Amino acid sequence: MERIPILRMGSFLLVTIQVDLYDRLALTLEADLVQMVSKTNAKGVLIDISAVSIVDSFMGRIIGNIASMSKILDAETVVVGMQPAVAITLIELGLPLTGVFTALDVEKGMKLLKSRIIVDNEDYDERDERDYLENNDSNTD
Amino acid sequence: MRGMSVITWKTMIVTLTKDLILISRDQDVVPYRSRVKEYAVKIKMGLVNQTKLITAASELVRNMLKYASGGEALIEVVSRGRDNGIRLTFSDKGPGISDIDLAMKDGYSTGKSLGLGLPGTRRLVNEFNIISEVGKGTKVVIVKWSNG
Prior knowledge:
Order of helices and strands of chain B: HEHHEEHHEE
Largest sheet of chain A: 5 strands, mixed
Shape of chain B: globular
Largest interface: A-B, 21 and 27 residues
Number of strands of chain A: 5
Number of domains of chain B: 1
CATH topology of chain A: Transcription Regulator spoIIAA
CATH architecture of chain A: 2-Layer Sandwich
Distance between the termini of chain B: 30 Å
CATH class of chain A: Alpha Beta
Radius of gyration of chain B: 16 Å
CATH topology of chain B: Heat Shock Protein 90
CATH superfamily of chain B: Histidine kinase-like ATPase, C-terminal domain
Strand order of the largest sheet of chain A: 1-2-3-4-5
Strand content of chain A: 15-25%
Distance between the termini of chain A: 23 Å
Number of domains of chain A: 1
Number of helices of chain A: 5
Radius of gyration of chain A: 15 Å
Order of helices and strands of chain A: EEHEHEHEHH
Oligomer: heterodimer
Largest sheet of chain B: 5 strands, antiparallel
Shape of chain A: globular
Structural class of chain B: alpha+beta
Number of helices of chain B: 5
């Protein structure tokens, strides 16, 4: 079955959607991402949709779902690179994607994620950080 | 008499090309969307209008799959006077819609969706027609003019 790859970078998960989405693919991505967030203890999810030429009500809902599910699992989601025509269409369709952070490109998206997560990092002392890294190492086996 | 015929000529929609695609699986929407895009590019439709049309098509294909487990999708390049456009017809042999007015309302859905499909689609295109008979099926016709 076709899958969209999810990359891990530190405490972030990166997803670049390079193919045309259809419903099942979007659902698989939703399930995979939420599972990855919990497995890797990720604090942020960045979804790059710059190569996506259309987002309809179903895919829009999936994006919203990913953001709310990640939020419950203590991770922030930012959607980057939406094409202007897609934004126009989404609003006319009636799907304003409220509750989803957006940024113009990957760089700004990463900055946004980091700025939202720094606050959390202050809570960690060094031992927590070490435990966290060890846990992640055992997870990748 | 002559005046009449001019009016009919101006408002008459002429089909230039036809392309019928069967939709039976989820994935069929991908090649279908790219076919619609091909025709839209051919008649020099702008990117925003293309995106709106393809999004509308995507919604209607989903409806066919969800409520009627598939159907036929016809793509036509049409012209009306000097305007060119794309007309898409979606026909299925599903259960039909008993109350079209209700189905066209924002937020109404018998499925688990947001209920944006039909009303949202209508906002994205220039012409929207729906005919449905309970137990027989549903036919949705949409038109997007290239500069509409």
